[in-house]
Amino acid sequence: MVISTIADRIARTVEGVADTVTAPFSEPVIRLGVTGLSRAGKTVFITSLVANLMNRGRMPQLNAAASGAIRTAYLQPQPDDTIPRFRYEDHLARLTAPEPNWPEGTRQISELRLSLRVQPSGLLSGISGLRTVHIDIVDYPGEWLLDLGLLDQSYEQWSADALDRANGRPGGADYVSLVAGVDPTVKLDEPEAQVLADRFTAHLHDAREAGFSDCSPGRFLMPGDLAGSPVLTFAPLPAARYPRGSLGREFERRFESYKRNIVRPFFRDHFARIDRQIVLVDVLGAIHGGPATLDDLRGAMARILGAFRLGRNAFLTRIFNGRRVEKILFAATKADHLHHSQHPQLTAIIEALLREAKDRADFAGATTAAMSIAALRTTVEETVDHRDGALDVVRGRLRDSGKQAAFYPGKLPDDPGHLLTPARQGAQKWLDADYSVMNFAPAPLTLKPGDGPPHIRLDKAAQFLLGDRL
After folding, report:
1. 3.90.1150.10, 3.40.50.150, 3.40.50.300, 1.10.238.10: CATH of 2-138+270-378+446-469
2. Residue 466 CA to its chain's centroid (Å)
């Protein structure tokens, strides 16, 4: 086992050195990771980004598009033959249909390569021809990222954390009560083990539906072809000295197997190879859920960012340490659910919400930014008369009924501390405000030639993430 591990590391090191040495003499590749937890809008973001890079009429804040430096864009097979292709055409067809609807969310890792033919600028612009820049977009469930935090935990530590979190979440008290009647030192009984795993998984689903973000292990929520396998048949148990052959000892072994066979390969083969990253955050949904879900989102984002290898992709650094994330964008999604007059408050909230994670990234040498975006705009803005005066609202098509409705979510505070402080202090509800969310459907589109789907600041996001390489 030790020899095979060493051999694998040597082989990967040699492969990495070879890739690094040849990279300056080959067509540049940008590996863009798109992450975020459920309902943050990863699939829509990727679909709209690709569509707007192929038809750049709505991308004035992407300098290479505005100047005409990007001459053409086209899709081609991604370099990783073993990874499913991101179903861009299917997703775009659903968003642009006569009766548009939202595509299915991310349930597995996928990849897409978009290649751009770019005219270089600067001193070489007059003597050099077009060059090709490849953008490899990697999409994966945000829930899987939360598993990276398990790598530094023992089964005992994870169990204690999971049981502590469960007490304040939907379905958690039932699971804690169930475990209280279980003796983890008795001989393993597989049906009992399956019942415990099923009940714990049901609790994770309930917590996620209630708006909580940190619901790990992530594969329990999206098991794929691992459903029912022993590697997903474990659950947290009270601490004890587990004898050989006991329920607790087997759960401990399966927990370590989960880290070794699922979490580490994902980090090694995909996550650690990313050099640009966007973190999509449904801040409005967390605020609507209440102080507990907002604080849980803050903690989850801090743990996710702790897994990134941050810093600049210097030539020698890439030879000896592998790729590092150079730029990270924290994006509050669904900005179209607010009138533009409240976008500064939304941006300030995400900056404050992610301050701990962002400061760590800045300190490590990565360039970070935060903004509010909508990858696909679904609403129009209006001002309506109200008993207290004019009210800025948004109007869109409701997903459930298809009817048009005007919506005012509530006034976000100018000071983010008015939300984050009670969230940290464990408040049960917002004292002086009530924040709502609306489930809008995509609006029917009539696109002019050369225009991609309408958005809010998608071009600004693309400039931050990709502009320096174009």
Report:
1. 3.40.50.300
2. 18
